[in-house]
Amino acid sequence: MESKDSLQATFWYSFFFLTIPFFLTFVLLYLLRSKFRCCNCEICTNYLLSGWSREFKNICDWYTHLLQNSPRQTIHIHVLGNTITANPDNVEYILKTKFENYPKGRPFSMILGDFLGKGIFNVDGDLWLFQRKMASLELASVSIRNYAFEIVDTEIKCRLLPLLTSAAKSTDGGLIDLQDVFRRFSFDNNCKFSFGLDPGCLESSLPISVFAESFDLASKLSAERAMATLPLVWKIKRYFNIGTEKNLKEAIEVVNILADEVIMQKRKLGFSTNQDLLSRFMACITDDRYLRDIVISFILAGRDTMASALTTLFWLLASHPNVVSKIREESNRVMASNQESASYEQIREMHYLHAVVNESLRLYPPVQFDSKFAMEDDVLPDGTLVRRGTRVTYHPYAMGRMERIWGIDCMEFRPERWLENGTFCPISPFKCPVFQAGIRVCLGKEMSLVEMKIVALSVVRRFDVKIVPPEVSPRFNSGLTAMLSGGLQAEIRERVIAA
Questions:
Q1: Is there a domain that residue 33 lies in?
Q2: CATH label of the domain that carries residue 474
Q3: Do the domain assignments include residue 386?
Q4: How many distinct structural domains can be found in the chain?
Q5: What does the pLDDT read at residue 28?
Q6: Is 442 annotated in some ligand binding site?
Q7: Which residues does the record give as heme binding sites (predicted)?
Q8: Is residue 6 assigned to a domain?
Q9: pLDDT at 35 (0 to 100)
Q10: Residue 2 counted as domain residue
């Protein structure tokens, strides 16, 4: 008589032998259907899927190309079930006018659920409203704004500038990976402000190396789920715990360990009298798993987006020395000659610096696209029909490259486009939705802009930065935020300022 294990093995072999041919046939038919079906727009799906990697470094550049050539600045990709738009009227309609019809949606929550759980970026309705209300109470006050500025200023003076000084004096030519530096810098700041804890990551290369790798991998593989032609494939891989889904599960386990450690340390230190974001949430929430999801969302928001924004900003500054000179000239007019760092009020007076930061974000938003799901059938302002359950994506990266929005010089890094007689002039947030817009606009927008400005100012006043080797255009890794493939290797040199 055959053993129980032998019978089970026979069953599974038979199961796979019978089902795999049917599954492969289904996949083939689906792909053929997608290949030959009209997209109801100017671009065919098979052209989309096969062409981008041959002509462009980044898939977002390919989407930009498609949207630039669409009369409506909107396309629909049947194979992905995704309507993608760079039309400001559509963006305002989705994010404001018909906000209730375009939530994150259950499909999106499922894709990122293993990683972000019930964190603010992955939920709708009451869960989103609760987290947003709690965060807004913390971020709206003047005292918190000043506290955040003080944290960033201290981190720059005590860690960032000394680290760059050390790199400039090193024997290896002053080479350093700025993307890695900004990740560590952002993680320190975020943990201090959000959790009241200081990981000290800029002081050593050890504290978050394993965490950083796992966090980046979890972000990358979660994003790949969203881009999957057949969602069924990643769901099957997750069920059997194989391939990329096994890697994702292992990475998330490491991330969860760090998030649990943050919560545990916070409990040890006590949170009842503290006013950081995590303390506010811990006073209301007893479910540690929910708290862990909130912590991970804070880390995603505070570490990755800021690191991405600073990395591309310095990539642009390194290739535009005239812009760096103007930043220095403006700071010399506003600040005293012997002043080490700018005050919050002085930062607000630097209109050109503000324009530089906004121009950088226009061209290289940290979140290159964002998706919603339609609750009911609808028609966008440009006439595009949206079916119930359809994924709808607005594309800030592509919008920053639309001639119809920014003019014929839309591909140029030109901060002056934001100025009128030397004064910064904002535009509609629906034309440049880097921080989202409407009801779900980023609560940390103003603090993020201030952080970018004070970092940029502090570094360019003290150092010259040269990218090694110089790149004509950046290549991004796939992920929830735009990170440069291979980092940003830079040569740091201390400035010699004439007396």
A1: yes
A2: 1.10.630.10
A3: yes
A4: 1
A5: 47
A6: yes
A7: 442
A8: no
A9: 39
A10: no
Domain that holds residue 331: 15-494
| pLDDT given at position 47 | 47
The three-state DSSP-derived secondary structure of the chain is: CCCHHHHHHHHHHHHHHHHHHHHHHHHHHHHHHHHHCCCCCCCCHHHHHHHHHHHCCCHHHHHHHHHHCCCCCEEEEHHHCEEEECCHHHHHHHHHHCHHHCCCHHHHHHHHHHHHCCCHHHCCHHHHHHHHHHHHHHHCCHHHHHHHHHHHHHHHHHHHHHHHHHHHCCCCCCEEEHHHHHHHHHHHHHHHHHHCCCCCHHHCCCCCHHHHHHHHHHHHHHHHHHHCCCHHHHHHHHHHCCHHHHHHHHHHHHHHHHHHHHHHHHHHHCCCCCCCHHHHHHCCCCCHHHHHHHHHHHHHHHHHHHHHHHHHHHHHHHCCHHHHHHHHHHHHHHCCCCCCCCCHHHHHHCHHHHHHHHHHHHHCCCCCCEEEECCCCEECCCCCEECCCCEEEECHHHHCCCHHHHCCCCCCCCHHHHEECCEECCCCCCCCCECECHHHCCCCHHHHHHHHHHHHHHHHHHEEEEECCCCCCCCEECCCCCEECCCCEEEEEECCCCC
Residue 1's pLDDT is: 47
Which pTM was predicted? 0.86
